[in-house]
Design a protein that fits this description.
- By secondary structure, the protein is mainly alpha-helical.
- It is rod-shaped and about 70 Å long.
- Helix content is 59%, strand content 0%.
- It contains 8 helices and no strands.
- Among the domains are: 3-47; 68-129, no CATH class.
């Protein structure tokens, strides 16, 4: 089924969906999920107009602060300065820009000025987000992963903890 056909079919079902009783809506959900190959929950959201078929989807969150060229410079400095946290990186960026420029060639003036402009350490931290050890995990999940790996190293005998 083509994307255009799916869209037309969904629009015709959306027009009929609110006028039906509970049993009729349930039957329509089953029909849409069978025809389009969706789960019932997704079919319900699509029939209520909460989900599009991909035409109007927007990227969530704030817009990127830095372009790819600016991010490459920040990440390069971050790696060479022993990967400090965002707060310390903010303080070291002005100090490292000249040596980075000498080593890697000239940086565009607009990029140089944007990096030197006072930005928050949060923005800097987000610019190197893809370099985290587990970017797909939330912070609490990463923390849990670290704590469980600590006990699996075999540092304690027989898997038991020391007692005081």
């Amino acid at each position: 089924m083509s994307q255009k056909t799916k869209t037309e079919y969904l629009e015709s079902c959306r027009a009929r969906y609110p006028n039906r009783n509970r049993a009729g809506r349930s039957a329509m959900i089953d029909e849409v999920s069978d025809v389009l190959g969706w789960n019932r929950k997704h079919a319900i959201k699509a029939l209520n107009g909460k989900v599009s078929l991909g035409q109007k989807t927007r990227r969530r969150g704030s817009k990127a602060t830095y372009s790819e060229a600016e991010t490459a410079v920040i990440v390069g400095i971050w790696k060479h300065s022993e990967q400090p946290c965002g707060t310390r990186l903010k303080q070291t960026l002005p100090l490292w820009l000249d040596s980075y420029q000498a080593r890697h060639g000239s940086i565009e003036v607009s990029i140089y000025q944007k990096i030197l402009r006072q930005q928050s350490s949060q923005e800097i931290r987000h610019s190197r987000y893809t370099l985290r050890p587990f970017p797909e995990l939330r912070q609490s999940q990463r923390r849990n992963q670290r704590s469980t790996s600590r006990y699996s190293r075999g540092s304690r005998t027989n898997g038991s903890r020391r007692r005081h």
